[in-house]
Amino acid sequence: MTVAWRALLAALFLVCFIGAPAQAQEKTGNKPGFTLVPGTARIVLMRPSIRAGAQSTGGMFEPNADWTQQARENIAQALTRVQSRLGNVVTDYVEPVGLDPAQLAEYQELFSTVAGSVIEYQFFKGNRLPTKKRKGQFEWSLGPNVGKLPGLENADYALFITTEDHFGSTGRKILQIFAAIARVSVKSGEHKGYAGLVDLKTGELVWLNADLQMGGDVRDADGAEKRVSQLLEGFPGRPAAPTTTASR
Amino acid sequence: MNLRKIAIAAIATSLVLGSPAVAGNKLIASGQRVKVAKSTMTVQPNVEWNKMGARPGRNSETWTLDGDGLNDLTFYGGIESGRPLFREVDKKNTPLPKVSSTMLLTDIPALLENSYRVALQTSAVQIDAVQPVQFAGTNGVRFTYSFSHQNETLRRRGEARAAMIGGKLYMVTYEAPALYYYDRSYEAFRAAAESVKL
Amino acid sequence: MASGKLAPFALTLSAVLATAPAAAQKAPPLPTYTPAYSPTGVDERGLWMESDEAERRLRDSRSVIKDPALTGFVRDVLCRTVGQDRCASVRIYVQRIPAFNATMYPNGAMTVWSGLLLRVRSEAELGAVLGHEFGHFELRHGVKGFKNARTGTDIMAWAGILAPYSPSYQFGAIGQIFAFNRAQEREADLQGLRYLGASDYPSAEAATVWTRLMAEADASALGRKRKASHNYAAGFFASHPTEIARAAYLRKAAQEIGDVEPYPNDRYRQALANWLPEFLSDQIKLNDFGGSEYLLNELAVDGWTTPLLFARGELYRERGHPRDLVSAAQFYQQAIDQGGAAPEAWRGLGLALLRSQQPAPGRAALREYLRNRPEAPDAAILSTLIAE
User: Fold this and answer.
1) C58 lies in a domain?
2) Set of chain B residues whose Cβ sits within 8 Å of the Cβ of A203
3) Which residues contact A158 (CB under 8 A, 6 or more apart)?
């Protein structure tokens, strides 16, 4: 059989392991007309959702406590540096005594659901909603009561961050080489993330940035800085970076 | 030979990328009467909605404003006796309860509750108030409910309006997270539900 | 990694008693247990971290039953089974999920589902099941299973590239993953039995829940007009040994230990009394007539109490065939006559009669319900049914 036929059949076998590659990979949405003057805002960072681990040869996620801990620390430090360059102060959210943990968890889940909706139904091709495809439109909210969550009294904005890193293991990389010889595409490593900013007065999502192929190795300080810069792409008030609205 | 290689590559690519198995999402314009759920049921919404390409079952369809995790308006157009509300995932081991042509109006909330309990694999489904209402021009039932998905803390609320007509079940359900989203689009649901005609 | 579907135990004490010696010979004592175990190695620490996150979510979950009396009782049974040293490292979460299961996370968090509590009959049976789960934890199955699954999927990925026309490599690798899980489940079963042997509970009761689970599965299948089938050998994709196999090897191992005296002062019924109507209601709403009827009959072995009669009425009314509705009305009436029935029995009676073409007595029953429960959430719709 020709190499081409073997490639086709190998692709069939591997479809279940690889999945379909993403067609677009990063996108930013901004509430039209919204700007943030640097140094004027008190921003609270909600507890980031950070997962870092390895991707086994077979594509399984191998959680790694050390990497996740390093990522958490590095991202926290990188955030303070990046934000301070903009003149904004970012403080960590502190759960007040007596806070109902279910209430906080509910709002974090609501944010994830809204972000997921933005990513699935507005940002990337495949399943977009007609009312969300229009030029210059970005209308998403967590509702006006989010600012009433205990612990947010002295804040103007809440910043949510999620990153997930599956670092391709050596075995995975070797597989990738052999797969290329068989003309089959195997992705090594998966680095996804999104970040959003919520106006605590109105509950509106004023900015969301999603990237399905992030750069920067979060296990070291420089990589985390690169990652945070990418996560904060299009952040309102950021000078010079071109903001892409939801018009594509 | 080159053409053959190109053709093979094209087939391989399309197999890996996949082609959508469902139709895309469509726009529902405001103020126009449309047929829904592959039935004689018609609705005239007072705002624009998105009709989702994926259907819960054969005689049903779902509309949304911001995505079905945030607001979900589903129409059931004449579910017959012996059929479940929506597609069964595992008919053998977890069959869904079925519509019965002799159902009382009070049996409709129980049908929804039990269907959700089985399909979502959770006990966290609760029917709240159950009242009579005029629906699709006949005596129907209106009920509110709340539920959560299995590993979620996000509470969801719902309201349904339904009637048995000609031995078949016609129903409209509206579901959204209790935090903000349920109240936000409730009026749009009410207008749509009150406009339902057969 | 969560693990462990547990099958119910059925009571087959009589078979064991016939061969057991007069004096109980207990199993040798368990090795010393060192608490405050810290995870070692990259994989184990990773899994503990994930489990810690999962436990955080569990703690905030709405499915967890926050009743200190119930949770305390379950913890008590665990401690009596595995000993105080071991049970100190476990956090228990009772979840309101109407299926037979308990899970153990690699970091010592244990969940017990309400469907399990509905199906065990005694403290000893519950102890056997909890001991099985603790066995997974003590034998560190989570991380071993994870490593094994990783190797298996690695093999599959390579086979896909190097030998795309030889599905046997991939098949073999998949099979090996499941066979490893089955071996782990068997190991945990026998470990649980070892705990029981060293405890005050009779180890004979380790096998009984499985036999009852099989009977329930049979009843469920028959109720759905399907064939009941039980195999000794597990299927290719089975994650656990079959119930027959488990009952058999557990019975054999218990015979070797030889303790059959039931545990005195068994507090199981009292501990569950408040929650029984709730768990029964969850079970009935699962649309499994055969299985639910079997469970109700098992629970009624010592007599049909009022809550059981009410539950049976609900079950028959839910299936709703014409003859079922007549039976349901009878069960509700029996519950009412017996005394102590909740007003909902009148509601069920009324609705069953209305659907059985007996409108007048049906409306009378509904009126009685609303008299006793004027704030009923469905009062408005019931009033229209009464008025027609």
Assistant:
1) yes
2) 180
3) A43, A44, A45, A46, A93, A146, A152, A197, A198, A200
Residues C207 and C152 in one domain: yes
d(CA A150, CA C267): 43
CB pairs under 8 A between A and B: 87
Q: How many CA atoms lie within 13 A of A40 on its CB side?
A: 6
C262 found inside a domain: no
* Residue B12: inside a domain: no
The span from the CA of B149 to the CA of B129, in Å, is: 21
- The Cβ of residue C322 has, within 10 Å, a number of other Cβ atoms equal to 10
Q: Is B124 on the interface with C (CB under 8 A)?
A: yes
Neighbours of A183 (CB within 10 A): 15
Task: Give the residue among C225, C205, C217, C235 at the shortest CA–CA distance from C77.
Answer: C205
Query: From CA C182, how far away is CA A202, in angstroms rounded?
Result: 54
Cβ atoms within 10 Å of C383's Cβ, excluding its own: 15
Q: Pick from C97, C318, C355: which is nearest to B102 by CB?
A: C355
* CB pair distance less than 8 Å for A113 and B27: no
SS3 assignment for B136-171: CCEEEEEEEEEECCCCCCCCEEEEEEEEEECCEEEE
Q: Which chains touch A (3 or more CB pairs under 8 A)?
A: B, C
pTM over 0.90? The answer is no
With CB atoms and an 8 Å threshold, state whether A57 touches C158: yes
Alpha helices (H) along chain C? 13-19, 42-60, 68-82, 84-87, 114-119, 123-138, 141-162, 167-198, 208-223, 243-257, 268-272, 276-284, 289-299, 306-319, 322-338, 344-355, 359-372, 379-387
* Local structure of residue B65 (DSSP, 8 states): S
- From CA A163, how far away is CA A52, in angstroms rounded? 8
Per-residue pLDDT of chain C (388 residues; tens, 9 = 90+): 333 333 222 221 222 223 333 334 455 566 666 555 566 777 777 777 777 877 887 887 778 899 999 999 999 999 999 888 888 889 999 999 888 888 888 788 898 989 999 999 899 999 988 888 888 777 776 656 666 666 666 666 666 666 555 545 555 555 555 555 777 788 878 887 888 888 888 887 877 887 788 788 888 888 888 877 666 566 655 667 777 777 788 888 887 777 777 777 789 989 999 999 999 999 999 999 999 999 999 999 989 999 999 999 999 999 988 899 999 999 999 999 999 999 999 999 999 999 999 999 999 999 999 999 999 999 999 999 998 6
Domain assignment present for residue B155? The answer is yes
Side-chain half-sphere of A192: how many Cα atoms within 13 Å? 9
Q: Find chain B residues with C-beta within 8 A of A102's C-beta.
A: 153
CA atoms of C135 and C122, how far apart (whole Å)? 20
Chain B residues lying within 8 Å of A22, measured CB to CB: none
DSSP code of residue C108: S
For C167, other C-beta atoms within 10 Å of its C-beta total: 12
CATH code: domain of residue B98: 3.40.1000.10
B114·C285 Cβ contact <8 A: yes
Ordered domains of chain A (ranges, CATH): 26-231 (3.40.50)
Q: What is the DSSP string of A103-139?
A: HHHHHHHHHHHHHHHHIIIIISTTS--GGGSSTT---
Interface check for A14 against chain C (CB to CB < 8 A): the answer is yes
- Per the structure, the complete domain to which residue C325 belongs is given by 274-387
What is the span of the domain harbouring residue B108? Answer: 23-194
**Each residue's pLDDT tens digit, A202-225:** 999 999 999 888 888 888 888 888
> Given the DSSP bridges, would you call strands A89-92 and A42-45 parallel, antiparallel or unpaired?
parallel
Contact (CB, 8 A) for B56 and A111: no
Distance from CA of A17 to the nearest CA of B (A): 11
DSSP state of B66: S
> Which residues, numbered 56 to 95 in chain A, qualify as contacts with chain B under a Cβ-Cβ cut-off of 8 Å?
none
Which of helix, strand or coil describes residue A91? strand
